[in-house]
Design brief:
PH-domain like, elongated, 3 helices, single chain, 4-stranded antiparallel sheet, 8 strands, 160 residues, alpha+beta
Length: 160
């Protein structure tokens, strides 16, 4: 029997340290619904191009085929642009990706962030020592990205 002043012995499995499951980085992309809509438009216009080219003697001329091909190319280019555009936030900075290049930028290199509202939505211009990085309200969680950039680069927003 224990006396009233003794502590009970702790037995059981050893206590393991808590390991954080927070993502080391987060990627922000154009909204999935927009990417799907643009891909469906490209498929629709590709189908129209095939239909115009296969319709013998229906009166559909070269102009209709050219227009359907132009719309197909336009929506396909928009899809590639939206699919490959992203901003990845890491512990050290951001990585801005476009269809043609990837550009890493440290938080210390961010000089200012300018926010503009327009007819097409909100545009965020991140001015850095390595050039301008832009993203719009078409990005999913764009407000969260903006606030994260402000917090980690110790800046205040400038609304124009």
């Amino acid at each position: 029997m224990r006396s009233s002043g003794e502590r009970p012995l702790l037995t059981g499995p050893p206590v393991r340290p808590i390991v954080s499951r927070v993502e080391p980085f987060r990627t922000y992309r154009t909204r999935l619904s927009l990417r799907i809509a643009v891909a469906l438009a490209a498929v629709f216009w590709a189908g129209m191009l095939v239909a115009v080219l296969r319709a013998p003697g229906s009166g559909a001329g070269a102009g209709a085929a050219f227009a359907a091909g132009g719309f197909t190319a336009f929506f396909l280019a928009c899809y590639v642009l939206y699919q490959r555009s992203s901003i990845t936030v890491t512990r050290e900075g951001i990585v801005a990706a476009s269809p043609l290049r990837r550009r890493p930028v440290a938080y210390d290199d961010i000089l200012q962030i300018v926010v503009r509202d327009g007819l097409g939505g909100r545009v965020y211009a991140v001015f850095t020592r390595r050039g301008v990085v832009q993203f719009t309200s078409l990005f999913g969680r764009h407000r969260e990205l903006f606030e994260t950039l402000l917090e980690r680069s110790d800046l205040a927003p400038r609304f124009v």
